[in-house]
Amino acid sequence: MLKYLIPLFIFVVMAIFLALGLKLKPSEIPSPLIGKPVPAFSAPKLDDPSQNLSPADLKGQVWLFNVWASWCVSCREEHEVLTQFSGQKAVTIIGLNYKDDPAAAKNWLQSLGNPYNVSIMDQDGRIGIDWGVYGVPETFVVDKQGIVRYKHTGPVNAEQIQNLFLPMIAKLQAEA
Amino acid sequence: MLKILSLGVLLMLPCLAGAVDAHQMATPELQKTYESINSELRCLVCQNQTIADSNAELAGDLRRQVGEMLEQGKSKQDIIDFMTERYGDFVLYKPPFKGKTTLLWLAPGLFLVMGVVTVFFVVRRRKSLSTAVIINSEQQKKISGLLDEGDGS
């Protein structure tokens, strides 16, 4: 009896581990920023480089920090979703125009629509490094106290907006 | 002749591609530290490469960051801390030994022990299974004969 049970047991254990392995996404690296204050920055705005934006300007509001670039193919896919979402005015959306040519970036927003309240420029990618950006697009959710609460890597789709971002934003808006 | 020459030049081109844009540090010691840090940090984009090996744009930016921090007089540990604060332990090619990574570090030893124990039991069982067979001299002769025959072929 034991002779048959042992292989069965080994099979079950392996099956469980392999099933868990299937669900892992090795390309999604957990961010150590979650639960920590947003990295400090002060960066020129895309539409008016003479003005800077820093996290202090956003204190007291919940905001999304979306990393995008005109050269990024999957940003285009996400852009439509974001533009629709921004129409709901549920939350402030700040764009980080990552390692992009300002002219190309402006062009992109003009032809495809602008979901961002403000976009700031990070031409040499330094702000990106501070936020641990490794794959564009990335989206962070920041609460009223300026604490990073969530990070999403890759394009956000409409379903995730509906089922994940909206409930989270509502919850964070309700916080003091 | 010209064809062979140009082929030779073409074949040598990949050597150039292998050298990623290395930052030149002021002193040989700094250069050594710079290279050793780069070979310990993972490129987040192409996850099986270090930033020293990778041509990805992010790897280039991270190398620049390492170079600048060294020039500012930061230590190797400062730079490693800077990177893990932003990208997590994942950025380290050699993960640190701590609660979460205990299994990762101990598993190879664990599997070795399991293997040794299994072999031990299998061998012991085999031994007890093989029972002595008693044969008489007639049979012994036959066996020797057969064995000799085998040698002859």
From TrEMBL, chain A:
It is a single-pass membrane protein. GO terms for cellular component: outer membrane-bounded periplasmic space; plasma membrane. It holds the Pfam family Redoxin. Residues 32-174 form the Thioredoxin domain. It is found in: Cell inner membrane. One of its GO terms (molecular function) is disulfide oxidoreductase activity. GO terms for biological process: cytochrome complex assembly. CDD domains: TlpA_like_DsbE (cd03010). Keywords: Cytochrome c-type biogenesis, Disulfide bond, Redox-active center. The keyword Protein biosynthesis does not apply. InterPro entries: Periplasmic_diS_OxRdtase_DsbE (IPR004799), Redoxin (IPR013740), Thioredoxin-like_sf (IPR036249), Thioredoxin_domain (IPR013766), Thioredoxin_ResA/DsbE_sf (IPR050553). Belongs to the thioredoxin family. DsbE subfamily. PANTHER family: THIOL:DISULFIDE INTERCHANGE PROTEIN DSBE (PTHR42852). This is Periplasmic thioredoxin of cytochrome c-type biogenesis.
